[in-house]
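Chapter summary example.
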Amino acid sequence: MTACVEGDVADTRVVVGLSGGVDSAVTALRLVEAGYQVEGLFMFNWSEDEAGRCQAADDFDDAAAVCDVLDIPLHRADFSHEYKTRVFRYFLDSYAAGRTPNPDVLCNREIKFDAFLHHARRLGADWIATGHYARLVHDERGTRLLRGADPAKDQSYFLAAVPMAALERTLFPLGDLPKTDVRAMARRAGLPVHDKPDSTGVCFIGERDFEGFLRQYLSGRAGPVRVAGGPLAGRVIGEHAGLIYYTIGQRRGLGLGGVPGAAQAPWYVADKDLGSDTLWVTQDAAHPALMETRLTTAAPHWLGPAPALPLRCAAQVRYRQRAIACRVTAQDSGLAVQFDHPPRAIAPGQYAVFYDGDHCLGSAEIVTAGAPAPLQSATA
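The structure predicted for these 380 residues follows.
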């Protein structure tokens, strides 16, 4: 890893956000090997526990074991209040309004690159570092966020709402590495988490039954499940427990097997009508409702000076999807995005993230997808 900060790295203090996983452990390892003054900080962001077992305590023990091997100090901070008020409250409000929020985007903006950054600066940090798979260029032109070198692990999508002032004081030592190299480096260095499985699930909530978790905080309102288009158009084929538990394009967990007159094929969520509490579904993976070419957004967050509009670039509407060429124009206080080809299952509440090649330009929360149309008359 090349030095990318001003001055002597030996006099530069970097506080690493240590999660107890292999990515943040190798982040600290690379900085130590590069000669920085490195300290770790473990964030407690969720105070509740499931089935009497506290995953955060186990993760803290793993982070402490990593610091012992690297011979660096470990701090701890409790950001659970900030997480509940600045991330989780919005998360619940979005689901209650029928949207599909992205808590990882919010968590990065509000916790990892705000609360953590300010706490690290109070500890005397010159820079912070995390184990994200993305690249930051700090040079005379300023700071630019780029995709990670490993396209399978690139996490720039989740970082596109972070304030530029925070990115200007951040290092991403894993941005030039594939995940296989990260695990190999951890193994060679004797880090005890070298074979620890990657965490998945909702940011800081962990791996658990998501619908069951959501039911602890929100009550869904039951309603009909209707077919969007085709020979069964408009027919009620079931009842759902609440629109809040579903997202556009969802395939699993619909419980719609064996519908009379329907093919033996998967069902997909095509739309959610909050006015009538109707869940619209289809067996057509290319149904027009899943292949919209237009979306509108809330006010954008640009990583740098706002570009002149209209703008030709590419936009990505979900983490695991590819970016698609589009034309971006101003609309009210937000943006209108017209794609050259339809992305799959645009979901309000997710983020449109804009790219010029590998350069991440910024992001905006999706408000609407396509133009409203009655699905009863749509053809499959």
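To summarize the output: The longest strand covers residues 359-369.
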